Structures are given as C-alpha cells and as structure tokens.
Amino acid sequence: MTSTKTRARPAAISLTAAAEQRIADLMSRAPEGAIGVKLSTPRRGCSGLAYSVDYVTEEDRFDEKIVTPGGTFYVDGASILYLIGSVMDWREDDFTAGFVFDNPNAKGACGCGESFTV
Question: How far is residue 22's CA from residue 24's CA, in Å, rounded to a whole number?
Fold first, then answer.
C-alpha cells in the first residue's frame, strides 16, 4: 500500500508585513464576537468589483483562512478566483490610509481606483 503525502497549498493571496500589522491593529480593537477580518469582492463601483475588508464573527467553510501573527484573515470563498496571486498591503501617507492590492487578475480599474474588472 502506497502512502500519499499531501503538500500544503499556498495561500490564495500574500500579505505584506504592513498588512499583517494592520490586521493586528484591527483585531486589538475588534467588536465583541469578531474572530478575524475578511476580504471579499462585492459587485460595486464603475468597473464591477471592489475590495471590501470587514470583521467576521463566524467561519465559513468555503473561505480561505490565513493565520497571521496578529489575527486570522479570511478570504471570501466566492472571491478567491478573482484574487489568486494577489498581494495585499497597507499604506498610509499624509492624505490617505488603506489596504492596497496588487492583483494580477485585474484587467482594468476605474479612474478613482475604487473598483476593478477581471
């Protein structure tokens, strides 16, 4: 009888150290019952899809689960195909602060940068 070994599959997206730190900051002041934060791609904006990061209170078995040093990060199961290979970063400057995505699947984005198309 042959034993088969399964190889750990890489996460759908990568998080920079700054994104991981922001998740830790969010979880340090999360509302009661929050178990992590979740990235999804709801339909909205001029290009069709947008990035949305929200607190999550229960685990969905179809979501991708990424454990970071500061808390658990989930990727919506219905959004994974749009995000495979993406890098999520947190950037701040004098005027704005937010998560920024380098998404190789995005074929275009709206002028304001709020939404993308695949």
Answer: 5
DSSP 43-61: B-SSSSB--EEEEESS--T
In the predicted structure, residue 4 carries a pLDDT above the cut 70: no
CB atoms within 10 A of CB 117: 15
Only one residue has tokens 């704005």, namely: 96
For residue 116, CA distances in Å to 29, 60, 87, 100 come to 30, 25, 15, 12
According to DSSP H, which parts of 1-92 are helical? 17-28, 80-83
Query: How many Å apart are CA 109 and CA 118, to the nearest integer?
Result: 9
CA dihedral 113, 68, 72, 33 (to 10 degrees): -110
Q: pLDDT, tens digit, for every residue of 38-52?
A: 999 888 766 578 889
Asked if 117 contacts 106 with a C-beta cutoff of 8 angstroms, the reply is: yes
CA terminus-to-terminus distance, the chain: 45
User: Taking the complete model, does pTM exceed 0.70, yes or no?
Assistant: yes
Percentage, residues of the chain above pLDDT 70: 79
